[in-house]
Amino acid sequence: MSNEERIALVDTKDASNDHTDGMMRFTREKVAELEDTEMCGYIVCAKSPSCGMERVKVYTRGHARTDGVGLYTEHLMKKMPWLPVEEDGRLNDPVLKENFVARVYSLKDFYASMSGEPTPGKIVAFHSRYKLTLMAHDPQSYKSLGRLVANQADYQPDEFYQAYRLGLMEGLKNRASRKNVTNVLMHIQGYFKRSLNKDEKAELAHVIDDYRTGLLPILAPLTLLKHYLNAYPDDYLSHQQFLQPHPEEMRLRYGL
Q: Distance between CA atoms of 17 and 114, rounded to whole angstroms?
């Protein structure tokens, strides 16, 4: 890379004070340590020249552009592409905050499900529990991960583990859209078609439609569905992570 293309970390008032090499030594050593851990999320400092995730100012010949990434964060995301990373300022957005926290808990759940010894069987069981979650976030990722799981015999165990983890976290990075979530709610609704009476079915359909059109938050149909699940237990649904992706006391779905 030429000097003109090289991104350098220098003092604002004295560009001759170049801290790039020292910063990159620290970055490589620290990220190498993190790669061997089961870290589940990383919050970085917005617009920081070392830690910003996006919109970091890069100065070229007296002009500034805002499309840079902090040196540390860029290396972290390159070496650990599965890791949920978010800027502190962006967490003020309730949608971004919910998505980030959901990804953190999903990765934590993934590691816990492996119990330190990943096996194809454990990943298949995990994938089953995350069917509705993936459908809500990114149906295409659900399909591609399904193909990966179906063809696991073509992979070495560690290769399969790495590929599934990356595919899972890439899929969950997509924010769950109202359209996709509505489809998932209607899918869950189908499990109660033999249990609910006519009025209950109508009420549930109405609440789901009110969510679809934005009149009600996601919490409304979920509360009703959990009520019916408690009344008419279903083992498959009760294990679906979609119904409780993070602790309820965090109240992250209240405004969605």
A: 47
Q: Please state the separation of Cα 207 from the chain's center in Å.
A: 27
Q: Tell whether pTM > 0.85.
A: yes
List per-residue pLDDT tens for the chain, 256 residues long.
334 456 666 555 656 676 678 888 999 999 999 998 999 999 999 878 778 877 666 556 555 565 667 888 999 999 999 999 999 999 999 999 999 999 999 999 999 999 989 998 999 999 999 999 999 999 999 999 999 999 999 999 999 999 999 999 999 999 999 999 999 999 999 999 999 999 999 999 999 999 999 999 999 999 999 999 999 999 999 999 999 999 999 999 988 8
Residue 36 CA: distances (Å) to CA of 1, 8, 27, 86: 29, 28, 15, 20
